[in-house]
Amino acid sequence: MDLLSIPNIKNTHSGNFFLLAGPCAIEGEEMAMKIAETLVRITDDLKIPYVFKGSFKKANRSRIDSFSGIGDEKALKILQKVSETFNVPTITDIHTNEDAAMAAQYVDVLQIPAFLVRQTDLVVAAAETGKTVNLKKGQFMSPESMKHAVQKVLDCHNEKVMVTDRGTMFGYQDMIVDYRGIPTMKQFATTVLDVTHSLQQPNQSAGVTGGRPDMIETIAKAGIAVGADGIFIETHFDPAHAKSDGANMLDLKYFDGLMRKLVAIRQTINTF
């Protein structure tokens, strides 16, 4: 996939990895704009191609009383405002066929959640919007099997497709990143490593997903080192009080430092 197919993406000739980053969920306009402003400043300074990420709703919840969103259209309009204000592309998850056409009116990239990536009708609905499609690898799937998900998008005459690894579940409450999967999936499509979701610890007894944010830097560095085309990171200025996935998000105050380390690793790799 050519990054230039994503509207308004910048710094594509810098030689850097590209970045999908933002809060797990859109909690309101003020928080989204605050996070976007910081991330745009950092990525512009470091010449990192950047796409703002925010879920307009959350459907895969552990409990029925978990936060699911502030309203579909309200959240999508906030994503649109982020794009227009900062001149950056945006990405959001979709969960139903109807979501595809609705979200495509507001964002530039449609993301298929890992649990749903085998849902053919959903993948086709996203592909047929003509938007770039990001396919999250199921926690239960091998890297090799993602070629079939990619082919579904290509069969819809849409070549704007990428895949994202978010770890593989070998037990009930933890996930492992198998870095052999990065070069494997790069044979099929542009490949991203989702750092923060790879560090989730789901299925906790309290019904709230846990995480290992202390390992974010380790996972991210390794992802760049093995050649990931892009990095996905969820971040928040107050993870402890975030309404979704706070346990595995990166505190926004650490974002600049981490990006500088990752850019240095990428620059080193580019010299070989």
Automatic annotation (TrEMBL):
InterPro entries: Aldolase_TIM, DAHP1/KDSA, KDO8P_synthase. It is an enzyme of class 2 (transferase). Keywords: Cytoplasm, Transferase. It is found in: Cytoplasm. Its EC number is 2.5.1.55. The keyword Secreted does not apply. Its main location: cytoplasm. NCBIfam families: KDO8P_synth (TIGR01362), PRK05198.1 (NF003543). PANTHER family: PHOSPHO-2-DEHYDRO-3-DEOXYHEPTONATE ALDOLASE (PTHR21057). This is 3-deoxy-8-phosphooctulonate synthase.
